[in-house]
Design brief:
Helices cover 56% and strands 9% of the residues. The protein is mainly alpha-helical and 338 residues long. It has 3 domains: 150 residues, Rossmann fold (3-Layer(aba) Sandwich); 77 residues, no CATH class; 94 residues, Arc Repressor Mutant, subunit A (Orthogonal Bundle), CATH 1.10.10. It has a 3-stranded parallel beta sheet with strand order 1-2-3. It has a 3-stranded antiparallel beta sheet with strand order 4-6-5.
Length: 338
């Protein structure tokens, strides 16, 4: 959604729609693990209204007449925000407005109420909406009736996912397909694409697992069996990954995950190295000059992140000053909900 919102092609299309009128755009991204304002009705309406008013400051006296007259700085209420949006059409008659709203399924409230709000906004004559969600029934029923007005991500990324899977599998040294195995290999790639449902993170994790199988000498039929046993649901996939961690690593893994969730910014690999009690005890309170150098510590930590923690945390940045972060925001969200 962010790519669509910020694309120059989108702006060009909207300018043609606006013609001689002024064009204003606003965006909101629901996030279930964010603050209350990032997953609430108030956060949605307040953010959109702020961006509209910033683009059209001349409309403030009419759109927010009561606050303008009183000079009020009291927090906005949801009824006041909805009443303000109801006046949007008459107050911005010389303006075309396009609103981008991502992650409807991450709204923390009644989905039907959210749908009602969006439909009332979409009925304003000079407003267009572009919304996204997982295909939950409520949103499919409300917005999915017209094929010309909807896109399914998995329909647009089939070729990219297939290419990524083939490239990553075929770059393994010694990879070769016997003539009689070509059909099995094609089916394997096709099944990866089908089960992915457009989710590249799932593809990345699955292909990584299959690559490990190839390195271990798995045959194509065995790789197909491995793929069949991998759930297509990301949360179930994460559950299985964490359950597969060796019991001797689970406490260290839990500490690392807890720190990564709580820290506002990624911490250095050195910090995570010191979180490991074994490293502290092995140094026996030695002086800093006796510790391994930063790059040696990072090499050791990268192996641990990939092996002990199943690659759900990764090192980012340049050697010597790498930091640790989740491979994707989805992993952080999953762990926060546990």
């Amino acid at each position: 959604m962010k790519h669509i919102c910020e694309s120059s092609q989108t702006e060009s299309c909207l300018q043609r729609w606006a013609q001689s009128d002024r064009l204003a755009t606003a965006a909101f991204y629901f996030w279930t693990s964010g603050s209350e304002m990032q997953r609430s009705q108030q956060g949605l309406l307040q953010q959109l209204l702020f961006e509209i008013l910033r683009a059209c400051p001349d409309t403030i006296p009419t759109l927010c007449s009561t606050r303008w007259a009183r000079g009020s700085f009291v927090d906005w209420s949801v009824p006041e925000l909805r009443a303000t949006f109801s006046k949007l059409g008459e107050s911005t008659c010389d303006t075309k407005i396009c609103l981008f709203i991502d992650g409807l399924d991450e709204y923390d409230g009644d989905h039907l109420e959210l749908i009602s709000i969006l439909q009332s906004i979409s009925n304003i004559h000079n407003v267009k909406l572009c919304v996204s969600s997982r295909p939950l029934p409520a949103f499919e029923d409300a917005f999915g009736h017209h094929a010309d007005y909807k896109l399914y991500l998995e329909h647009l990324t089939v070729d990219d996912i297939s290419r990524f899977a083939r490239d990553k599998l075929e770059e393994i040294p010694g990879f070769a397909i016997l003539r009689q195995e070509r059909l099995i290999y094609s089916e394997l790639v096709s099944n990866i694409t089908r089960k992915a449902e457009g989710v590249f993170l799932w593809v990345f994790l699955v292909v990584r697992s299959l690559r490990e199988g190839l390195i271990n000498g798995d045959s194509l039929p065995l790789l197909r069996q491995r793929l069949d046993e991998i759930p297509s649901d990301l949360e179930t996939f994460f559950d299985n990954l964490i359950k597969s961690v060796d019991i001797v690593y689970k406490f260290q893994m839990a500490v690392a995950f807890d720190v990564a969730i709580r820290t506002p910014e990624p911490l250095s690999m050195l910090t995570y190295w010191f979180l490991d009690d074994n490293n502290i005890h092995s140094q026996d309170l030695a002086s800093p000059s006796e510790y391994p150098d930063a790059e040696s510590i990072e090499t050791q930590m990268i192996r641990k992140l990939n092996g002990c923690y199943k690659g759900l945390l990764e090192g980012t940045g340049v050697p010597g000053s790498r930091k640790v972060n989740f491979i994707h925001r989805t992993v952080r969200d999953y762990l926060r909900m546990r």
